Amino acid sequence: MIKENSNRRDFLLNTTKVIGAGLAIATVPQVFISCESEELVTVMNTNVTTFYVLDLTSHPELLVAGAIKKIKIEGKNNDNPLVITHHKNGSFSVVDSICPHMNCAVDLPSDTDSTLVCQCHPNNYSTVDGKYVGGPFQGYNLKQYTVGKFDEAKKTLEIKI
Ligand code: FES
Fold it and tell me: Does residue 15 share a domain with residue 93?
């Protein structure tokens, strides 16, 4: 009787081990497949273009071509203001308002065709792309942010930031 119980227990133990091993073999590739799927999703997510939608209703001057303004968006651009330019040709551009040479603010020009001038040293930067266009310290450019759609009806501007 004891021998019979022992055999039954051994049989159950061995069966469990075989089933367990089988499950492990069947599961391991699934784990790798799952990881690969997650990586694929991650890769796909990096291709998704997301824009911050800036509401221009509180900045109506920027709805008119030929306007330029500094706007601070909380939590963006290290909490430094952005220079948003609505160019005379209707396009928009967005650049950082802080000169990267020694972190001084730039002054806005009265004409959007002119340049942004650093308040500490007379470096000049393009309102179009923030690139250095003159001044004593070459090799510095204002950070530029990609602009998406300007929705005139909704009065919104997309900024990839
Ligand atoms: S801080 Fe702007 S050029 Fe020096």
Answer: no
> What range does the domain containing 145 cover?
52-160
Per-residue tokens: 125: 């930067």
Quickly count: other Cβ atoms within 10 Å of residue 7's Cβ. Answer: 10
**What pLDDT, in 10s, does the model give residues 73-117?**
999 999 999 999 999 999 999 999 999 999 999 999 999 999 999
Question: What pTM was computed for the model?
Answer: 0.71
Instruction: Select from 110, 102, 128 the least CA-distant residue to 118.
Output: 102
Residues 85 and 31 in one domain: no
| CA 110 to ligand 1 centroid distance, Å | 20
Span from the CA of 50 to the centroid of ligand 1 (angstroms): 32
Rounded to the nearest whole angstrom, what is the distance from the C-alpha of residue 106 to the centroid of ligand 1? Answer: 9
Q: Average of pLDDT values for 15-42?
A: 43
Ligand 1 atom nearest residue 118's Cα: 2
List the CATH number of the domain containing 109.
Answer: 2.102.10.10
